[in-house]
Protein 1
Amino acid sequence: MEEKTYSGFVAIVGKPNVGKSTLLNNLLGVKVAPISPRPQTTRKRLRGILTEGRRQIVFVDTPGLHKPMDALGEFMDQEVYEALSDVNAVVWVVDLRHPPTPEDELVAKALKPLVGKVPILLVGNKLDAAKYPEEAMKAYHELLPEAEPRMLSALDERQVAQLKADLLALMPEGSFFYPEDYAKSDQTFGEWVAEILREEAMKRLWHEVPYAIATKVEEVAERENGVLYIKALLYVERPSQKAIVIGEGGRKIKEIGQATRKQLEALLGKKVYLDLEVKVYPDWRKDPEALRELGYRS
Ligand code: GDP
Ligand code: MG
């Protein structure tokens, strides 16, 4: 007799910077989503695939909900609603270090239509760093009393393992969406590299060029000497930003390139040659064509 399998989709939602990507990475045990101390690092919908025994979860990491500011903003909100329309459970992440803001209220409002249809887990995150977690949790729970509250730290292995077990148990009977041995994300290798590069660039540039940065990998080639050659582009919107990204004597871009290369080498376990170039793509965030080219629209 064939054994039953269980599988489904889980959306991870929440305003920017609450720890969605950190939680997803630690649920999966690998680095899939980019993490940054600045909001809006996650622009694309991103899947992570978790298979344990006869149970599988396909995670959807959504960009934070926020008011559409430009073409990119509109795209992000659409992604959130798409991500929510067909899931088996929702994980709503909030930051216990602070009480709810209007952005959290927006998320709660977006989740209201799902009440009674899909289990909603309200995850109060950053428990390790919160001064008044109980009070904060109560205030978040009041925004959506139907949600099931819990507190944790996305950095705490045991607490994340418990959440993982509970989510796996929520999956309905059904065949797997991905083969058991499928890679843990459906990003291409180039997209994955581009996100790591963007993460390293954002870390070092957020004072100067917050959201004007986009990245793209043009070429990946395995060299005969075992070195992985990667040609990547870093786009900015204006020539003045290009100068900032390059930095005095090329120092900034060198720093970004080195950090990216080190991360890639650690994750891949092989030597990487990163060929990095900064280009100006005027007003790419307002240009639908550019957004498509950079992978923000299909
Ligand atoms: P996202 O925008 O919701 O995806 O948030 P990220 O996962 O990028 O995390 C934003 C910041 O919060 C990063 O600096 C994380 O290291 C940090 N962070 C995430 N989870 C925790 C946690 O449980 N405790 C603490 N202290 N920091 C966390
Ligand atoms: Mg994120």
Protein 2
Amino acid sequence: ARPVGPGRYEVTQRAAEAEILPGLRTPIWGYAGTFPGPTFELRRGRPVTVAVRNELPVPTSTHLHGGVNPPDADGYPTDLVVPAGYSAHHHGHPETHHQGVKEYRYPVDQPAATLWYHDHRMDHTAPQVWRGLAGLALVRDDEEDALPLPRGERELPLLICDRSFAADGSFRYPDHAAGGHFGGDHMEGVEGDVVLVNGAPWPVAEVTATRHRLRLVNASNARRYLLRLAPGGTPFVQIGSDAGLLAAPVAHAEIPLAPGERQDVLVDFSAYRVGTAVTLVNALGEGSAGNVMRFVVARRAADDSAVPKALSRRAMRPADVGPAVATRRFDFRRGETAWTINGEPYRPGVPLARPRLGTAEVWRFTSDFHHPVHLHLAHFLVLARNGRPPAATDGGWKDTVDVRPYEVVDVLARFAGHRGRYMLHCHNLEHEDMAMMADFDVV
Ligand code: C2O
Ligand code: CU
Ligand code: CU
């Protein structure tokens, strides 16, 4: 992203080519013509305006995932930036059109966190993200700066997504996987057989034998990961979740990551001998999808980082949030012709809930399938899975929770920051495009 003034960026979405597989050219659609798009470094308390110019042949809508933003900057699926000369064919729902460019104003009034942005166009999110319309946005703040966390080269944001390729190097996306045939071969959404990290297949990172911070982001359309280190011998020390730092670090042997989720972890490579190649493994993946990337421990080095005993002072326990003023249920289920929430395929402008600004509510998610459930605007704490305490990796403020088949997941969501129209949806992007989405209005 090209900064053009204090707090202002201009980013052009355009078609370009990338060398992802050696010697082959992959046509992409990218923010600033790159895949992934540029990483935005944001600072709490410093609002930014991002002018997104659309030079693609299709409309787009940009959503900052995890962002606490006013509704007109949230990337509502029918709030479209249409390219010059594009003649709109309506789908029968009201659309807002910005000709060529839209300015998204982000207040950046939220704690340090790993956010990401991606296209959110009605009915077309999955294929447009697959072609490359996604990137990272890191929010930093004073509280995080005061912690002795690894930084600079020892902080590695890792945007993980899978793709399939045709023999000529182009991305292969099945016809009609989203928006066309419902169900069929693509019930589970579209998975690729090559895992990419920051747009590169099976990359190698040379690391010193010191602590590193890995900001793990699952930007895949549909693939879920269970990440492990091989050889093991040192844990992932989780310091943050989707929406920011935890109260205190928690060690995990493995990290599940559903589409849309983030995990912020420390890995201490001094546990390995110099020369060791450490693989980040996906225990859920078969064949080439079973490996994500490698770290080669190149040499010893001084380490002034530490694992802080306490991380963030934000309210972290349900008791700190205050009593829930309402309980609502959202049932994610396969319908006759679409994926549905409470029996309804998505209808823009028809909110399923009207929570009040400044309150907290318990939202209960149930499903007949795997659905990573995501809320815009509102961050939440996972209270329970099937009436029992949530998984250790569910801790902290989140915006996406993986709801497993026949599971009942209770979350305590806080509606803060802005009034207006937001959405909840399945973050399996093919399910989202097949209508598993709903509006809620913060009133
Ligand atoms: Cu990352 Cu509404 O999505
Ligand atoms: Cu979002
Ligand atoms: Cu789903």
